[in-house]
Design brief:
The complex is a heterodimer. Chain A is α+β, with helices and mostly antiparallel strands. Helix content of chain A is 52%, strand content 18%. Classes of the chains: A alpha+beta, B alpha/beta.
């Protein structure tokens, strides 16, 4: 029983539990099956009894029914039974009534209750229920059976244990011992690696064969062990040889790797230089960066980049870098030094070739001599080519002779391509930037002009409307004052006030118009002296820049810086004076804490494109040391109604100046920074001025009376015109519209008494002044036409004035202007008025 | 929710109480002699089998005829009311003319027909008619089932032979219930 003893306790328990489980399962199965069988048997029994008792039940025969039940005696298990008719016990077993208490009948069922199996079964005859059968069976038999099983199992266990014990003790000698021996032998072999041990054979059975086989296997292993040891020795020898080979190979590889590393470093350098120069747009910076990188990473002692001047065939040192400053002094090369390419011995570069001087001592060019003198024994020069043309050269040099490998030269060549490209691009970029800046400046100027023009148009439009409204006020006040009898002294005074106020408004409005009004071609440009004008203005404004500020303890100094011998400028003196006055007053306003105002005149060859040596422009500057203007103010200061002076300023001053300068075909330049003062520069073109003699003395004319037709849709203006003209002795007829006017014109023509002059309004409903003019000229080309309009300024500007119109006058009509106009027309060669 | 459940339960119980009628007291009273006999007539039908030709059609009625004075009153009709045998609904008829005898499946011959018995049996013999009577010496006259009384219990005797001659098969269970005097050996 040794093996049984050796089996672990766990095993033993497992075994026992397994046996018990099997037994338990068997018993459970038996019980379930037995119960099942019991129920089935009972049902069978019930079927027989039910079938037998249908008649007895049908015919209410209790004796027969009990007889039927009585046959259950044969079955000891049945302890009670009964037949029900309806719910009532009809017959019972055993016979003694009251011996058993029967439950109420139930539907077909079989169930275990306590120690009994109960069964109910309905009895049918021809599909009709005639009664119910009840059977009660005890389970004694089943219990008996279970006891039998338990006994059998225990017996079996004991028997099997006994047999096992006997068998194992017998088998131990025959089987176990040789196996243990074999196991021990295997242990010795595996632990001591001793393959010469052999197991002893005890018998010739299967175990004997196993031991034989084991011994044989050991023999084979022993042989292999020997062979393996031999092979191992050989292998070690071979490994030694291979290691020697590998060592050699490693040395070779390291050499190759070093070369590769060098190559890589160069590529990296190239990459870095390329990246750095690609970030720059400035040629100088690019060149210097390249040289610096070369000095740092390629360890050259000298580096330079020269740009090629194709016309001079020379190389210009644009960037230079020398590692040792002492060397630099000896070389005597500087940025900006130019040398003919032939002297430098670099002519092959023009063809895109690299010039390599292995030993400068043996070369005969100027560059080689200089290098040799400075101690630079070797140098390499690569061309910078752009589109196959030499752009410049890159030269590097080292102290030792033959200091450049072919790899380095190759690198320099590659680098040169990138540098050339970058430098070229930088140049292009600079050119582009300049073009762009020029363009932007031009655009800004144009925009400024456009804005001013638009504002001017708007201002003129407003002026026109105000003038139209103002004309009758001033006109009639004037008429009353001049000729109306019976106006009291007070009345006259009031009328004078009205007229003055009206004229003031007209003056303001005219200033507004000044801003934009183009110079009337017929307005005379008289020669004037700018220096004189400036002096005049200084005198005129003295109270503003000296007396008033002094009252407040502020000192303002006015300086003049006049160029001698200024030629006369053609211009309208009054306008220029007003403009200059304005500038001076602005300057005074700009220095509230005192300072200096400088008036400067000079000549400038401003327009150098013209190419003539004569001074083309006269310049007048007004500078102050005041608060200056910021960019925004500078941008808008010429616009009408733009003012920084709050309520004190109308915003028309500089706008007027601008208008004046424009009319003189000049320019305004403004230099100003906040806190840095302001310089306003007026630039006038110089041209020949008219002489005074060219002009008539207008206004002092005595006119012959004309026959005049006045056409205007505004009754007030119509009447005003008539009054003015009639006062001058003209014969006046009026019409209230274009068509009516034309009718009157034709009627007079037919009568043979045509009008001498026709004055017509421009803006009229249906037939406007333009159409009137066209028709009149068509029918009588010689009849002069004066167009009267608030739009006069525009028509002059835009060239809108119809060809048929002889003169355009602005509203409101002034008697003096009218007179002048009539006079001009009358003087026209061939004019009908001439005849008079 | 509990409250509503409780109401539901209460209503259900109330409804149940309305539906379940108290058991009829009539059942407690022992049935009368003719009520028992009517039930027996009905039960005979279940333990006797008729030849197929007794029913011309599948739905032909199973006819229980009563000839002579009807001692059952309404009891027989009540017993077989709404009942059927193999699809044949039961019908109760009072037979007046002898020619009607052959249309019955079970013929109860009343005690009043003592004189006419031979003629009636003669009329029934040629047809598949189970003859039942309480007349004395009925079996000896050629009748098939004879009611007897044993105290207040109804018993019966059977003469199997005329039944077999008429093509009727009487279940052995019925035969075993019959009084010993029967068993068909009587002539």
């Amino acid at each position: 029983m040794v093996w049984l003893r050796d089996i672990s306790i766990k095993r033993k328990l497992t075994l026992t539990v397994a046996l018990l489980l099997v037994f338990g399962g068997f018993v459970t199965y038996e019980m379930v099956t037995f119960r099942h069988t019991m129920a089935r048997d009972l049902f069978t029994l019930a079927d027989i009894i039910a079938n037998r008792s249908t008649a007895a039940l049908s015919f209410d025969n209790q004796e027969d029914a009990e007889e039927d039940l009585n046959c259950l005696r044969a079955n000891k298990r049945i302890v009670a039974a009964c037949l029900y008719r309806g719910d009532r016990v009809f017959a019972q077993y055993p016979k003694h009534p009251g011996a058993t208490v029967f439950p109420k009948p139930e539907n077909d069922t079989a169930r275990f209750e306590g120690d009994h199996l109960l069964l109910f079964r309905h009895i049918f005859q021809n599909g009709e229920r005639v009664g119910t059968l009840y059977l009660k069976s005890d389970l004694r038999e089943m219990h008996q059976r279970l006891e039998l099983y338990a006994g059998t199992f225990a017996l079996f266990m004991l028997a099997s244990l006994a047999v096992t014990f006997v068998l194992s003790s017998r088998l131990q000698g025959i089987i176990t011992r040789p196996i243990f021996h074999l196991g021990q032998t295997a242990k010795i072999v595996s632990m001591g690696k001793n393959y010469s041990v052999r197991a002893q054979k005890h018998a010739d059975d299967e175990l004997g064969q196993l031991i034989d086989g084991f011994n044989e296997m050991l023999g084979q292993i022993q042989q292999r062990d020997v062979a393996l040891r031999d092979a191992n020795d050989q292998l070690e020898q071979r490994v030694g040889e291979r290691t020697r080979d590998l060592k050699l190979e490693i040395v070779e590889r390291k050499r190759a790797e070093a070369a590769l590393q060098e190559q890589l470093a160069r590529i990296k350098l190239l990459n870095r230089i390329t990246q750095i120069i690609s970030e720059r747009q400035d040629v100088d910076s690019i060149l210097h960066v390249v040289l610096r990188q070369l000095e740092d990473h390629l360890t050259v002692d000298f580096g330079s980049i020269c740009l090629f001047e194709p016309q001079a065939e020379s190389l210009n040192f644009a960037a230079l870098r020398v590692k040792n400053p002492l060397l630099g002094a000896k070389l005597d090369l500087h940025e900006g030094t130019a040398m003919p390419i032939s002297d430098m011995g670099l002519v092959p570069c023009k063809g895109g070739q690299t010039v390599y001087m292995a030993d400068t001592l043996k070369m005969a060019s100027e560059l080689a001599e200089r290098f040799a003198y400075a101690g630079l024994r070797s140098s390499a020069t690569v061309p910078l080519m752009v589109e196959n043309k030499l752009f410049g050269v890159l030269t590097v040099a080292r102290l030792r002779a033959d200091g450049f490998t072919s790899g380095e030269c190759e690198f320099l060549r590659t680098l040169s391509e990138h540098v050339a490209l970058a430098a070229h691009q930088a140049q292009l970029h600079r050119a582009l930037e300049k073009a762009y800046n020029d363009l932007r400046q031009t655009q800004q100027t144009v925009m400024q002009q456009e804005r001013l023009k638009a504002l001017g148009q708007m201002a003129s439009g407003i002026a026109h409307d105000i003038n139209n409204a103002l004309s009758p006020v001033v006109g009639f006040a004037d008429l009353l004052l001049r000729g109306e009898p019976g106006v009291s002294t007070n009345g006259k005074r009031y009328l004078t006030h009205i007229k003055t106020a009206g004229e003031d408004i007209a003056h303001i409005v005219s200033r507004l118009k000044e801003f934009y009004r183009r110079r009337d071609e017929r307005e005379p440009l008289l020669p004037l002296d700018l220096n004189h004008l400036a002096q005049q203005v200084i005198e005129m404004t003295r109270p503003r820049w000296r007396d008033i500020p002094q009252g407040r303890g502020i000192m303002i100094e006015v300086q003049t810086d006049f160029a001698a011998g200024m030629p006369k400028l053609a211009g309208i003196e009054s306008e220029l004076r007003e403009a200059l006055t304005n500038l001076v007053l602005n300057a005074v306003d700009a220095i509230p804490k005192g300072g200096k105002i400088t008036l400067r005149t000079r000549l400038a060859d401003y327009d150098h494109v013209a190419g003539n040596s004569l001074p083309a422009h006269a310049i007048l500057e007004v500078s102050d040391t005041g608060i200056g203007m910021d960019a925004e103010t500078r941008k808008h200061c010429l616009e009408p109604f733009f003012s920084t002076k709050g309520k004190r300023g109308t915003g028309l001053g500089l706008a007027m100046v601008y208008g004046v300068v424009e009319r003189h075909e000049g320019k305004i330049e403004i230099e100003s920074e906040p806190g840095q003062g302001t310089t306003m520069r007026l630039i006038f073109p110089l041209r020949r001025a008219l002489s005074v003699e060219d002009l008539d003395s207008a206004g002092s004319l005595v006119l012959a009376p004309h026959k005049i037709l006045c056409i205007d849709d505004e009754p007030l203006l119509r009447e005003l015109l008539k009054e003015i003209l009639e006062r001058d002795g003209h014969e006046v007829e009026v019409s209230d519209g274009g068509q009516a006017g034309l009718d009157a014109f034709r009627a007079a023509h037919r009568r043979g008494n045509p009008f001498d002059v026709i004055i017509t309004d421009l803006g009229m409903p249906y037939v406007d002044g333009r159409q009137v003019a066209r028709t009149v000229k068509l029918e009588s080309p010689r009849t002069p036409i004066i167009l009267l309009t608030g739009w006069g300024a525009f028509m002059n500007e835009d060239g809108e004035a119809p060809a048929q119109v002889d003169t355009v006058l602005s509203k409101p009509p002034r008697s003096r202007e009218l007179r002048e106009a009539l006079n001009r027309i009358g003087r026209k060669p061939g004019g009908e008025v001439m005849a008079q | 929710m509990h409250f509503r459940s409780a109401i539901k339960l209460f209503l259900s119980l109330a409804l149940l109480m309305l539906c379940v009628r108290p058991p009829a007291r009539a059942q407690e009273v022992a049935p009368s002699e003719y009520q028992l006999k009517a039930a027996f007539l009905y039960n005979f039908a279940k333990f006797v089998s008729w030849p197929p030709e007794a029913f011309p059609e599948l739905s032909s009625p199973f006819v229980i005829g009563v000839i002579g004075d009807n001692p059952f009153g309404e009891d027989l009709e009540h017993t077989v009311k709404d009942k059927a045998l193999n699809g044949h609904p039961f019908a109760v008829r009072e037979v007046k003319a002898l020619s009607d005898v052959k249309n019955c499946h079970i013929l109860f011959i009343s005690a009043s027909e003592r004189k006419r018995l031979p003629e009636i049996l003669e009329a029934a013999r040629r047809a598949n008619v189970l003859t039942v009577s309480e007349l004395e010496r009925f079996l000896q006259s050629g009748g098939m089932i004879h009611f007897t009384m044993e105290g207040n219990k109804v018993r019966f005797e059977i003469n199997d032979e005329p039944a077999r001659n008429s093509g009727l098969k009487i279940s052995s269970k019925l035969l075993s219930l019959a009084r010993g005097a029967g068993r068909g050996q009587l002539k």
